[in-house]
Amino acid sequence: MTTDFQNWASQRQTAIETFLDRRLPGTDCVPVRLHQAMRYSVLGGGKRVRPLLAFAAGELSQADDQRVTIVAAAVELIHAYSLVHDDMPCMDDDILRRGKSTCHIEFDEATALLTGDSLQTLAFELLSEKRLSDDADTQLMMIKQLANASGSRGMAGGQAFDLDNVGKTLTLPELEFMHIHKTGALIRAAVMLGARCSNRLSDAQLEKLDHFAKCVGLAFQVVDDLLDAEATTATLGKTAGKDAENNKPTYVSILGIREARDRAEKLQYDADRVLNEFGNAAIRLRQVTDFIIKRKF
């Protein structure tokens, strides 16, 4: 990573952390235990990849930074809720996330369930309370897009497909169908919500951005599967080797290490190519993509 990108990313990560800290209910507010769990699950961890993508897309479309901060926070809250629920015994049953105990271990299962529910609803509260677009219809579309990305036709549906196929052998198209929903939908929403905070892009340009985000979402999952197979628990901050232990279909199990790495590089190439028409305005999106592909944890 260049120093310029590191500084930019650090500033944006600090901005989103500050905003989330301010908007999450304080631990002096009843119900105290639930609010403690919400803050525990969101603050002080994570690379904030989805907010970085939202900020990068917002810069491309010359969107107001305060608007982008709100949509970036909303997407991150949805992501955090999904992690809390995914780690529960009825899902992936994990005990470690972001280098610390998962929510249901630190608190309890009922609190973890309510934590995820509360983070999800807070995300939509953020999207609805401030003007995020000069056009009211566009803002309604943005709310709908995050809802679709989060629900049965997006992230939740992808997780259901994942659970249904534990122990089964999937084809590559089937695996990519799953991850377009489970992982990719929220990444696409991050990019599109950031871009839609401005009305400067045409429908054709927004379609190109959506295709870019689809490629990045799949690439993110390929790298995630590679890290699960190759990295250590201490490095990842979550239990390594969990996919193989649970006999889950992954890019590594289907393609092998080398071909999976080639797949990630091809997806990055396709994503970069889509951005060509935007020129230097897309530099942050290119940099965040590079960060995603080359991350080590």
Describe what you observe in this structure.
There is one protein chain. The chain has a single domain (3-294), classed as Farnesyl Diphosphate Synthase, CATH 1.10.600. It is mainly alpha-helical. Helix 3 packs parallel to helix 10 and helix 11 packs antiparallel against helix 15. The chain contains 16 helices and 2 strands. The two termini are 15 Å apart. The protein is globular. Strands 1-2 form a two-stranded antiparallel ribbon. The model has no long low-confidence stretch (mean pLDDT 94). The longest helix is centred in the C-terminal third of the chain and has 28 residues, at 203-230.
What layout of secondary structure does this protein have?
Blueprint lengths: L2 H21 L8 H11 L6 H12 L4 H22 L9 E2 L2 E2 L1 H4 L2 H21 L6 H15 L4 H10 L7 H11 L1 H13 L6 H28 L2 H4 L5 H4 L5 H5 L1 H18 L8 H12 L3
Antiparallel strand pairs: 1-2
Helix pairs in contact: 1-4, 2-6, 3-4, 3-10, 3-16, 4-6, 4-10, 7-10, 8-9, 10-11, 11-15, 11-16, 15-16
